[in-house]
Amino acid sequence: MVFLNNYLLDNRELDAPLFVTFYQCVVTVGLCWLMQLLAKMCPGVVDFPSVKFDLKTSREVLPLSVVFIGMITFNNLCLKFVGVAFYTVGRSLSTVFNVLFSFIILKQTTSMHALICCGIIMGGFWLGVDQEGLAGSLSWSGVFFGVLASASVSLNAIYTKKVMPAVDGSIWKLCFYNNINACILFLPLILVFGEVGRVASFSRLTDLSFWGMMTLGGVFGFAIGYVTGLQIKFTSPLTHNVSGTAKACAQTVIAVVYNSSSKSLLWWTSNMMVLGGSSAYTWVKSREMQKTAHRGPQDSAKEKLLPGEKENPGV
């Protein structure tokens, strides 16, 4: 999906990242309706809950939808201004924001070992920015949107866990309501940022191959939304963020090989620092949770977890 969105957003004729994201949300809502219909027609083959729009549930999911819009919009804007290879480093601060939000919201302190891991991640981030600058391909706009995307990813993981009871723990229902809310919220944003005129004057507006690529992006978004929600439901926001970082590192290698790019040793070092720091942070948190699990309930209550994180050594 990252490579596909990079192709769509890199189109200089169509400078409308919000519209591209909006359309993918519309496709996701349509797929939810289609899956619901198929479940009724083939109950033994397709398993999908019956979903009827409820305004009260929609309002309960709304805080997540606002964060969700920020996450996918900033992701796409970051991708628009930077290449797929640097996209990994540009969005590497999700774990750091988890620690920051836990301190600001919960007044929870973090162990020195965990802070050192965050320092390694931040070091990898700044080294990557430095190397992109030396290569002459740095976009500060891309870096800015990457940081905002990282913050939004952390908040999205937290709010997904918090609103899950409102949809009876159903990933599909959450996907349905979240994307309906997003479609509605995107409309005024598209108008405010003047994308209606750009879309209307786009030369490939009647090109079926363009809409095919746009629709395929929506299908990937539907699949990713389901897998992401499932991962957060059964593990924790931390697990989601770290596995996302690992995925991004693999994606970086593919991007460099595909584009036949030549990167410096320090550039690769920055990526390894991000991956190594994130992996080390997971190990440290796992050890801390194991120690907490062996204490009494009163001692365990003193150490608050990030909202949605399970007291589970298998993070």
Main features:
315 residues, Sugar_P_trans_dom, single chain, transmembrane
Report on the architecture of this protein.
With 315 residues, this protein is mostly helical. The chain has 13 helices and no strands. 76% of the residues lie in helices and 0% in strands. The chain is globular and about 50 Å long. The protein starts with a helix and ends in a 13-residue tail after the last helix. 40% of the residues are buried. Mean pLDDT is 80; it is low at 300-315.
> Mind summarizing the main beta sheet?
none
Task: Report helical residue fraction.
Answer: over 70%
How many individual β-strands?
0
Q: How would the global form be characterised?
A: globular
Residue runs with pLDDT of under 50 for 5 or more positions:
300-315
* String of helices and strands: HHHHHHHHHHHHH
Radius of gyration, CA atoms, in whole angstroms? 20 Å
Structural class: mainly alpha
Distance N terminus to C terminus? 26 Å
Q: Mean pLDDT across all residues, rounded?
A: 80
What percentage of amino acids are in beta strands?
A: under 5%
Oligomer: single chain
Number of helices: 13
Short structural summary:
The chain has 315 residues and is mainly α.
